[in-house]
Amino acid sequence: MALIKFTKRGIYCKQGDFYVDPWWPVDYAVTTHGHADHVRFGNKNYLCHSLTKPIIKSRISPDLNVQSLPYGESITRNGVKITFFPAGHIIGSAQVRLEYKGEICVISGDYKIEDDGISTPFEPIKCHSFVSESTFGLPIYKWQAQNVVFSNIQNWVQNNIAHKKTSVLIAYSLGKAQRLIKNLHGVAPIYVHNSIANLNEVIFKAGVALPLSERITPEISKDQLQNGIVIVPPAMRDSRWMKSLHHPVTGICSGWMQVRAHRRWQSADAGFALSDHADFPGLLQAIRQTEAEKVYVTHGFTSAFARYLNQIGTRAEVVSTHFGQEDDEENKVDLNKAEQSSAKKEEA
Amino acid sequence: MRRFAQLIQELELSNKTNDKIAALVQYFTEANDKDKVWVIALFTGKKPKRPIKSALLKYWAIEITQTPEWLFTESYTNVGDLSETIALLLPPAQQQADLHLHQWIEDLHGLEGKDDDTKKAFILNAWNSLETNERFIFNKLISGNFRIGVSAKMLVNALAKFSDLDSAQITHSIMGKWNPYEITFHDLIAGEHVNTDSSWPYPFCLAYALDTEPENLGDINLWQAEWKWDGIRGQIVKRNGELFIWSRGEELVTEQFPELHFLLDSLPDGTVLDGEILAVKDGAVLPFSTLQQRLNRKTITKKELENAPIGFFVYDLLEHEGDDFRQEILASRRKALQQIINNINSGQVLLSPVVEASSWDELAQERARSRELNSEGLMLKKLDSLYHSGRKRGDWWKWKVNPYTVDAVMIYAQKGSGRRANFFTDYTFAVRDGEKLVTIAKAYSGLTDQEIKEVNSFVNRNAVEKFGPVRTVKPELVFEIAFEGIAESKRHKAGLALRFPRILRWRKDKNASEINTLQDLQQLLQSTL
Fold first, then answer.
1. What are the boundaries of the region Disordered (chain A) (predicted)?
2. Which residue of B has its CA nearest to A305?
3. Counting CB atoms within 10 angstroms of each CB, which of A117, B95, B165, B217 has the fewest?
4. Rounded to two decimals, what is the model's pTM?
């Protein structure tokens, strides 16, 4: 009997009687990471990685009943051994490894292969079945090494400062914002929006070595901001506050920026293809290293990616989930939703 | 090439005209002179000849990346551009080549007539020497157009700013016939070539649509009204014993219209006429659909010559007895023009008549007859106006009749390309034919970005079938489609075709049972014949 089932509440392990990243309230939710499409309000119990615990308590509610584990340590529930391994997606993100009577299944949530300098790097886990995302599951998505991308961002910022423009990077509060802070440290003073500053405090308290950045307050002058780097969440784009800055120019950091059409549609002043999701070769590498006999493809270019896997000899199946629908801005590109809904229709 | 790739990136990243002009000026300041000539050529549509078919590029890219063809197609659908899809799919370059733009173009030119193996070896080596964004440009050089939102006017303004030359003079210089392989940058923008070349046309004077009541233009006696003909705007140039016919798209179309070749003998040297190429029989203008049978044909049959005889309705005189006549006022130009046309004495080349009226009301009544004459409405030109280069506000106005409209329901949607590659932006519309729906038009403009997003989400939720990038959707959304004309068509199921259809507005107040019928359109067709 298979270890997991895809039900309307989410990914369910019958033998252990728990769900992984459920989208409707359940008794016991194992949580891969803190993005809102993977962890929701209303579950009686949560199990997650130690760094994810303060994040979800801060984002959802301090009253959540959360148990946590470091990477590599296990607990057993109804005979099913549950272990977290790093997924490299954001701080605290984990792949969930389930083992029952010799059968191993890994649910990877969201992941990327490259070491981003702030999340614990991805670790491949051998298993019988593997649940994989496919956000960038087309061969046109191949990332440059992050030091190349960051040096482009650095040049952009320095050029803006020289031309009296204010550099505003649009980044999601949890994940991308911290990655930018860590890797742009020392280029120019970094100023962050409230929502990012709040999360930074939580992450800092949890013991992560995050370089300092300054919370934006009315006391900080527009001249200071112009000579620094401003990081705000997507909701702040086109806000009145943004327009009040000295000649603001926006840069979007997202894997979608790989393609001209996306860059132009977003009409940002600059696009940097920097993603917290694996690129196409990354997805294939991860899947190969699991040596899995069966791959379940969740959100992204599901139908194309699963078809390709089958063609290269890896049994793969598209499963319909609610992942990739909110909170992680890289999943916010309408196209992605379009692909998902069309994939869903094809199954139906 | 790297500098050119950077320019393209800068131009793409800004929507602001000033930023784009600044980027162009910076480029013209830094770049190699030969490259600059090519940039002007590429941005004004003077593409080098294609040495290789794009199908071959696709085939080679598929071969070396070992991408299944269906996956290539999926990728292409996501990217919306073949050159870019290939550039993104290829593995990172193993070597570096820092050749200039003109060197690449010359090397590609050198491939002409070579066998496929030689071409392939060259292309693969180039791909392996270029960064992703340079590869994209390289592929575009072979297979596509540079659509990056740089208008001819913007380019001219940047060149004027860079060189301190007059912008009208630059427009003139880059518009004519010149060979980018031979001309120097200096000679090109200084217009050295235009004096020795008898073919060069003048920039057309264009008009804005009238956006106010005509009464606000003042005394009608200061204005000249003419019919606005629905044909191909053209310029006929006769110099040094040679005749040239230019279309507004800056294309030489002399060979296509043998009926006008007699002008070689009957026009004096040093004459340039502005007018409209039309299908004309017994002095009357025929519908555009008739003219259409004659466009872009390599050979013309006797029957086509009989069915769609070409004529030229002359609007203006730009060069007279070898002198640039554009600085004369309209009234004087018209007088001289009248003399020239009288001397020609032809049934096919006629002075476009002035529409006489003693008041704006009377003129409005005349305008109401436009469709009967196969005209689109009126042109209003100030009698003391000079012949301007390009579009200028105030002296000339288009006063078109309102378009025809039909309410139709959307039944297919397709993803757009370029900026809109990920949204369903191209729609096919149908009207009712008894119980069935029959398609009548495809349109892809007229909605705001916000509306496009709404329609996009409707398509995602209501797609019934999927054929590649096309979705069949539930017939629910009703749109008012505007169009300029209607013609019989054997090619379309409906038996008719609409001219220049576009979305006028989204009729959220109507449902699919309230749309027009095929019979409504057939009646309209009968009434226009």
1. 323-348
2. B71
3. B95
4. 0.71
